[in-house]
Design goal:
Blueprint (H helix, E strand, L loop, with lengths): L22 E3 L14 H10 L3 E7 L5 E3 L6 H4 L10 H6 L12 H8 L5 E5 L7 H11 L7 E5 L2 H9 L6 E5 L4 H10 L6 E5 L6 H8 L3 E7 L2 H10 L2 E4 L10
Parallel strand pairs: 1-2, 1-9, 2-4, 4-5, 5-6, 6-7, 7-8, 8-9
Antiparallel strand pairs: 2-3
Helix pairs in contact: 5-6
């Protein structure tokens, strides 16, 4: 049956809200037809529908966290550039796809959401020299924010920096099993005191996920786009990150 209000296997009270409602991948977009990913419009649609929002963060040249998935701006904005080499003022002036939406800063996203729905925020792996600046920028934006937020990354050093900050936001590891090296890296990173794991649904079942759940960690999956992957996630995880459909509209 569809994910709705299950809390199976979750022993981390600070992440229990994640199990309540499926999470909209990069906001509740329409596969970039009219409503594009990681835009104010996609976030507004998610808020209206009551879906928590998953989004991606990158760091600008002036150390501002911006909401954008790609490292380069060409594919989504039609402008040749690298996010880390561009200041926030320039990035926020770019239009995403065929829309009038600009690239939001993380601070702007927090102001828009204002605690109405939860946020599952992926910090894209930075250059190793940028780990401290990236973690610091994100945590500074979150100062005083009273909504539900969980932070996560593929980058173990960034995950560790977020944990070591002493802030109370739940921190998770994003993981996949594209090869044996990735599998080893995942198991090594699981030694960190993370609160949850976000795992590639296409790589289920997984010994790594079984180990994470045995440790009492909540497991969410990315990215569920069809019924087959939704069912796989239901068997092995606690929540889904979805796109391209309304998971709550599916019949049991």
């Amino acid at each position: 049956m569809p994910f709705s209000r299950s809390a199976k296997g979750n022993s981390v009270s600070s992440t229990s809200w994640i199990t309540e409602t499926p999470i909209a991948h990069r906001g509740y977009h329409d596969m970039n037809k009219l409503v594009w990913e990681n835009t104010h419009s996609a976030f507004a649609r998610a808020i209206k529908s009551g879906f928590p929002i998953e989004c991606d963060l990158q760091l600008s040249s002036d150390d501002v966290a911006v909401v954008f998935h790609d490292y380069e701006t060409l594919q989504l904005c039609g402008v040749d550039g690298t996010v880390r080499d561009m200041p926030a003022e320039q990035l926020t002036s770019l239009k995403v796809g065929s829309t009038t939406d600009g690239i939001p800063t993380f601070g702007q996203l927090l102001k828009q959401v204002d605690g109405k729905v939860g946020l599952v925020v992926e910090l894209k792996p930075p250059h190793e020299d940028d780990v401290a600046a990236f973690a610091g920028a994100v945590l500074t934006d979150l100062k005083g924010y009273e909504g539900q937020v969980a932070l996560m990354s593929f980058d173990a050093k960034l995950v560790e920096a977020l944990i070591d900050s002493g802030e109370n936001w739940p921190v998770g590891l994003v993981a996949a099993e594209f090869n044996e090296a990735a599998k080893r890296k995942n198991h090594e990173a699981l030694s960190l005191p993370v609160n949850f794991v976000s795992f590639c649904v296409d790589h289920l079942p997984s010994d790594f996920v079984s180990k994470a759940r045995a440790k009492g960690l909540l497991v969410i999956t990315w990215t569920v786009r069809d019924e087959a992957s939704r069912k796989s996630a239901a068997d092995f995880a606690d929540q889904i990150t979805f796109e391209g459909f309304d998971p709550l509209a599916l019949s049991a």
